[in-house]
């Protein structure tokens, strides 16, 4: 099967070719191209399906043979410089190819329905193909230069897709914010690449790793300089994978279409940073201080993302901060040397988060028919509630994704997240505590999102009544007084009407016929949701310890063996050990779900006056703490606020100072000499009147003054 690897260039080339064809036809023949819009969509899906089959074939060959293949062609050849381009196929590459193509084809099928009424439908598929081709080219790159080229292409495509609806000021600002933030990380990445080229004299991965280790062993390298270069390299993944402190672009990126949010958060842009750390793992592993920095950055990001997600009212932004938190888990795993766990969580999280985002898109698509096209309303979970009654398939699939992301067995993320938490405890107790607490917060905010979106009653129609307002916590309020909702039906179905009762004095009945209600999405959207539930349910078993209990028996270890054998990280363990470790993580997960059920669940285990009791607790003891949590989440941990003060306002203040310095000091000195010379010339011109008598008078006066001074 050697000939298959020789044609691996087809994988990124075909989507790139389709993108060029769509773009050029849209530029030169816009009317005919738009009239054939569905043909272009079908062609895009068909091409990516072929690429997906090719990727699965390569993965199967890697699983059987466990061999690494590399094909290089000279690009720039000189006596001192030899740049090559080509392709590298190893287990990491094959896994990423399957991940990108499977998620990509599902997103394309979903987009055919979701974007069907958009005027930019054809342009969207051109961007989507280019985005997929860029990411496929990135994971196939055999050297740092080629990775950097595709790295920038991924950033450019994200800029185009986040700002797809560029006529909206919020979308235009969001894509600029993402682009500028990533430029900071990309500049550091470029400096790091050049630094390691100066150290090793090569961009090729194999040569670079070998020479760098030799230089370290022989003490022929300045360790501080090497660590600085590695830190600069790490700056690229910090920005691309939304790690603290360059994470601020990720929630604003939700201004793009929902299919792109799914693709960015699951298999492309944010996955690129994790992939680069995994690809350069031998380099970072040789520098323990850098590994510690990576682990702590990941831990801080995981905890920060989870705390900010606690009270988000925007459905997509809540999921965005969830992505940020889970990426922190992956970075933490790589930082503590748990290579397999970090990569495993990248795989399981990709399918779970794609399912959640596409499910949120189904909800948003349905809510738009009620509240109109307004992201502040159709994405606001305070306007939702009870959607499972109207959208059962979307509700069930979203619940499955929620179970997985929370780490509940036997869903996908349970198997990967539990390993990360266990390895964190083994590495350092501080990191273990952070990962453990984050797991509890994850289960709380994810079930908060689910309960407020799919359970209870539909609140959007209630908000149409002028005296009712909806708080960010999902409560409906009337003059700051809680409302008690009593279903007119004993079966709790929002069937005909319900009653709003304020101290049993005022009653309002809202009849079903007067209001609009959401409906289930079409078959294309539901098909993609059902398809994504399959890997969400079963892909976690790839890394599960099978009953044999043999070291490295799980399928993921088998596939990654060529890489893991060099890192001394072959998974070992058995079911009993795994089960004991799982009890620790499941305890905090169940506790988080329990708290979310009490506060937001449709059925409370407490009496009906729970809200009054809860208000009493807030007033007596917990009010400052709850207010702090709400403000921390609503204002995004105040980080954007401080960035605005330090960078935006600070830059403007610095510009004003430089303007003052330039106008009054630099220009002042030059202009001062000019004014002095001009005034001197202006004053001397009156001495030259053209009258001889005046000249004689001046001459005699000067002679007289000279003689007088000589005498005295």
From TrEMBL:
Residues 448-662 form the NADH:ubiquinone/plastoquinone oxidoreductase chloroplast chain 5 C-terminal domain. It is an enzyme of class 7 (translocase). Residues 75-125 form the NADH-Ubiquinone oxidoreductase (complex I) chain 5 N-terminal domain. It catalyses: a plastoquinone + NADH + (n+1) H(+)(in) = a plastoquinol + NAD(+) + n H(+)(out); a plastoquinone + NADPH + (n+1) H(+)(in) = a plastoquinol + NADP(+) + n H(+)(out). One of its GO terms (molecular function) is NADH dehydrogenase activity. GO terms for biological process: ATP synthesis coupled electron transport; electron transport coupled proton transport. The chain crosses the membrane at residues 6-28, 40-63, 83-109, 121-141, 147-166, 187-209, 221-239, 260-281, 293-311, 327-348, 393-412, 424-447, 525-546, 582-603, 692-711. The keyword Lyase does not apply. GO terms for cellular component: chloroplast thylakoid membrane. It is found in: Plastid, Chloroplast thylakoid membrane. Keywords: Chloroplast, Membrane, NAD, NADP, Plastid, Plastoquinone, Quinone, Thylakoid, Translocase, Transmembrane, Transmembrane helix, Transport. NDH is composed of at least 16 different subunits, 5 of which are encoded in the nucleus. NDH shuttles electrons from NAD(P)H:plastoquinone, via FMN and iron-sulfur (Fe-S) centers, to quinones in the photosynthetic chain and possibly in a chloroplast respiratory chain. The immediate electron acceptor for the enzyme in this species is believed to be plastoquinone. Couples the redox reaction to proton translocation, and thus conserves the redox energy in a proton gradient. Belongs to the complex I subunit 5 family. This is NAD(P)H-quinone oxidoreductase subunit 5, chloroplastic.
